[in-house]
Design brief:
By secondary structure, the chain is α+β, with helices and mostly antiparallel strands. It has 5 helices and 7 strands, in the order βαααβββαβαββ.
Length: 160
Protein backbone atom coordinates (compact mmCIF):
# COMPACT_ATOMS: atom_id res chain seq x y z
CA UNK A 1 0.00 0.00 0.00
CA UNK A 2 1.24 3.48 -0.83
CA UNK A 3 1.22 5.97 2.01
CA UNK A 4 1.47 9.72 1.87
CA UNK A 5 3.45 11.30 4.70
CA UNK A 6 2.92 14.86 5.83
CA UNK A 7 4.32 16.90 8.63
CA UNK A 8 1.71 19.55 9.36
CA UNK A 9 -1.58 19.06 11.13
CA UNK A 10 -4.90 19.94 9.55
CA UNK A 11 -8.08 20.78 11.50
CA UNK A 12 -9.66 17.55 10.24
CA UNK A 13 -6.87 15.55 11.93
CA UNK A 14 -8.37 16.09 15.37
CA UNK A 15 -11.29 13.74 14.69
CA UNK A 16 -9.19 11.31 12.66
CA UNK A 17 -6.50 10.99 15.34
CA UNK A 18 -9.15 10.44 18.01
CA UNK A 19 -10.71 7.65 15.93
CA UNK A 20 -7.30 6.12 15.24
CA UNK A 21 -6.34 6.07 18.93
CA UNK A 22 -9.67 4.57 19.95
CA UNK A 23 -9.36 1.89 17.26
CA UNK A 24 -6.20 0.49 18.84
CA UNK A 25 -7.82 -0.54 22.11
CA UNK A 26 -4.60 0.50 23.88
CA UNK A 27 -5.47 3.90 25.30
CA UNK A 28 -7.75 4.98 28.11
CA UNK A 29 -10.21 7.78 27.33
CA UNK A 30 -8.22 10.27 29.38
CA UNK A 31 -5.07 9.39 27.43
CA UNK A 32 -6.87 9.98 24.15
CA UNK A 33 -7.97 13.36 25.49
CA UNK A 34 -4.35 14.29 26.27
CA UNK A 35 -3.41 13.50 22.66
CA UNK A 36 -6.30 15.60 21.38
CA UNK A 37 -5.26 18.46 23.69
CA UNK A 38 -1.79 18.31 22.09
CA UNK A 39 -3.34 18.35 18.61
CA UNK A 40 -5.47 21.38 19.55
CA UNK A 41 -2.48 23.20 21.09
CA UNK A 42 -0.38 22.54 17.99
CA UNK A 43 -3.17 23.70 15.67
CA UNK A 44 -3.55 26.88 17.72
CA UNK A 45 0.12 27.76 18.30
CA UNK A 46 1.93 25.95 15.47
CA UNK A 47 4.47 23.20 15.87
CA UNK A 48 7.45 25.43 16.60
CA UNK A 49 5.69 27.39 19.37
CA UNK A 50 3.97 24.34 20.87
CA UNK A 51 7.08 22.16 20.69
CA UNK A 52 5.06 19.29 19.21
CA UNK A 53 5.76 17.99 15.72
CA UNK A 54 3.88 15.31 13.80
CA UNK A 55 4.52 12.69 11.15
CA UNK A 56 1.17 11.66 9.72
CA UNK A 57 0.68 8.68 7.41
CA UNK A 58 -2.35 8.77 5.12
CA UNK A 59 -3.91 6.63 2.47
CA UNK A 60 -6.87 7.90 0.45
CA UNK A 61 -7.32 10.82 2.89
CA UNK A 62 -7.51 8.49 5.92
CA UNK A 63 -5.04 8.97 8.77
CA UNK A 64 -3.67 5.48 9.37
CA UNK A 65 -0.84 6.31 11.73
CA UNK A 66 1.15 9.11 13.31
CA UNK A 67 3.95 10.07 15.61
CA UNK A 68 4.18 13.15 17.76
CA UNK A 69 7.67 14.15 18.83
CA UNK A 70 9.60 17.11 20.14
CA UNK A 71 12.87 18.28 21.57
CA UNK A 72 13.17 17.24 25.21
CA UNK A 73 13.14 20.41 27.30
CA UNK A 74 16.45 21.48 28.88
CA UNK A 75 18.55 19.17 26.68
CA UNK A 76 20.90 19.90 23.80
CA UNK A 77 20.19 16.91 21.57
CA UNK A 78 17.52 14.65 23.09
CA UNK A 79 14.07 14.16 21.61
CA UNK A 80 10.94 12.52 22.95
CA UNK A 81 8.44 10.59 20.91
CA UNK A 82 5.34 11.48 22.86
CA UNK A 83 2.77 9.60 20.81
CA UNK A 84 3.07 6.78 18.32
CA UNK A 85 0.06 4.91 17.00
CA UNK A 86 -1.19 2.97 13.99
CA UNK A 87 -4.86 2.34 13.26
CA UNK A 88 -5.85 -1.18 14.25
CA UNK A 89 -6.75 -2.05 10.64
CA UNK A 90 -3.21 -1.08 9.54
CA UNK A 91 -1.21 -2.81 12.27
CA UNK A 92 1.40 -5.45 11.39
CA UNK A 93 1.70 -4.23 7.79
CA UNK A 94 4.95 -2.26 8.09
CA UNK A 95 3.36 1.16 8.52
CA UNK A 96 4.70 1.64 12.05
CA UNK A 97 8.22 0.97 10.80
CA UNK A 98 7.82 3.57 8.07
CA UNK A 99 6.47 6.21 10.45
CA UNK A 100 9.29 5.52 12.89
CA UNK A 101 11.92 5.75 10.13
CA UNK A 102 10.51 9.12 9.00
CA UNK A 103 10.44 10.38 12.58
CA UNK A 104 13.98 9.22 13.33
CA UNK A 105 15.30 10.79 10.10
CA UNK A 106 13.73 14.14 10.95
CA UNK A 107 15.10 14.06 14.49
CA UNK A 108 18.57 13.12 13.25
CA UNK A 109 18.39 15.92 10.65
CA UNK A 110 17.67 18.40 13.46
CA UNK A 111 20.81 17.29 15.29
CA UNK A 112 19.09 14.88 17.66
CA UNK A 113 21.40 12.32 19.26
CA UNK A 114 19.01 10.50 21.59
CA UNK A 115 15.40 9.46 21.09
CA UNK A 116 13.34 8.59 24.14
CA UNK A 117 10.06 6.68 24.16
CA UNK A 118 8.00 5.78 27.21
CA UNK A 119 5.37 3.07 27.37
CA UNK A 120 3.38 0.97 29.77
CA UNK A 121 4.26 -2.41 31.22
CA UNK A 122 0.67 -3.64 30.84
CA UNK A 123 0.37 -6.92 28.91
CA UNK A 124 -1.55 -5.09 26.17
CA UNK A 125 1.67 -3.22 25.38
CA UNK A 126 3.85 -6.32 24.93
CA UNK A 127 3.75 -6.00 21.10
CA UNK A 128 4.65 -2.31 21.41
CA UNK A 129 7.66 -3.05 23.59
CA UNK A 130 8.77 -5.83 21.22
CA UNK A 131 8.42 -3.42 18.27
CA UNK A 132 10.66 -0.82 19.92
CA UNK A 133 13.26 -3.44 20.82
CA UNK A 134 13.22 -4.76 17.26
CA UNK A 135 13.95 -1.19 16.11
CA UNK A 136 17.02 -1.06 18.38
CA UNK A 137 15.49 0.88 21.26
CA UNK A 138 16.97 -0.23 24.58
CA UNK A 139 15.22 -0.17 27.95
CA UNK A 140 16.96 2.42 30.11
CA UNK A 141 14.67 2.42 33.12
CA UNK A 142 11.47 0.99 34.55
CA UNK A 143 9.53 3.07 37.06
CA UNK A 144 7.31 0.86 39.22
CA UNK A 145 3.62 1.66 39.64
CA UNK A 146 4.04 4.86 37.63
CA UNK A 147 0.74 4.89 35.72
CA UNK A 148 -1.21 2.83 38.24
CA UNK A 149 -0.51 0.03 40.73
CA UNK A 150 1.19 -2.71 38.72
CA UNK A 151 1.48 -0.50 35.62
CA UNK A 152 5.12 0.52 35.31
CA UNK A 153 6.58 3.14 33.00
CA UNK A 154 9.22 1.63 30.71
CA UNK A 155 11.64 4.11 29.18
CA UNK A 156 13.42 3.24 25.93
CA UNK A 157 16.33 5.03 24.27
CA UNK A 158 17.94 4.92 20.87
CA UNK A 159 20.99 6.79 19.66
CA UNK A 160 20.62 8.57 16.32
Amino acid sequence: MDYHFRYRLKRSDKKKIRELLLSTGFFYDYEVQVAIDIVELTLRKGDESSGYHFVIAEHENKVLGFSCYGAAPCTTASYDIYWFAVHKASMNKGLGSKILMHTEAIISGKGGRNIWIETSSRPTYAPTRAFYQKKNYVVQAELPDFYAPGDNKIIFRKNC
